[in-house]
Design a protein that fits this description.
- The protein has 170 residues and is of the alpha/beta class.
- The chain has one domain: Rossmann fold (3-Layer(aba) Sandwich), CATH 3.40.50.1820.
- A five-stranded parallel β-sheet has the order 1-2-3-4-5, with helices on both faces.
- α4 links the parallel β4 and β5.
Length: 170
């Protein structure tokens, strides 16, 4: 499931084509407000909505329970890294493109694999947030993490999306 940042909510679904090429389902719900609820300090309506969307999808599609990723960009990446660790029994992988934070809530369940990428020229959320904070935090907490930097700004380059998807499907 891919969740976007506040600026990306209505800009389509980057990553759709690579998913289709690999036979993967991409579910791209929108937050119930301007951005994801945890970014505003608490989990609430967005979690309930995501649960509903997932139940609907699981009832209609053949889903491999060993390959369920929570993917996000910007605020959506921060949301994925905050919601994912508490739901490691569902999400086997967390993919975060240009996150700004991670505030998992107890209890932490399971240990999903984590992929984080960030542009070295990001002017919205500086690369240091991922390089010096988020990636080392997950590694210190015992998560298997892959961290990739790319030359670029606050974006999801096709090469990084493809690398993340290949990592997820390996």
């Amino acid at each position: 499931m891919r969740i976007g940042g506040a600026q990306q909510q209505r800009s389509g679904a980057p990553g759709l084509e690579p998913c289709e090429q690999r036979g993967a389902i991409l579910l791209a719900p929108e937050s119930r407000a301007r951005t994801w609820d945890a970014i505003r300090g608490t989990f609430g309506p967005d979690v309930l909505f995501l649960d509903s969307v997932l139940r609907h999808t699981f009832s209609r599609c053949a889903i491999d329970p060993s390959r369920i990723a929570l993917i996000g960009f910007s605020d959506g990446a921060s949301y994925a890294l905050s919601l994912g660790p508490s739901n490691g029994d569902l999400f086997t992988h967390l993919i975060a493109f240009s996150p700004g934070s991670s505030y998992p809530e107890d209890p932490i369940v399971g240990r999903p694999r984590v992929f984080v990428s960030h542009g070295t020229e990001d002017r919205v959320l500086p690369v240091s947030l991922s390089r010096d904070g988020i990636a080392p935090m997950f590694e210190m907490d015992g998560y298997e993490i892959r961290y990739e930097e790319f030359v670029g700004g606050h974006e999801m380059p096709e090469s990084i999306v493809t690398a993340a998807l290949d990592w997820f499907l390996e």
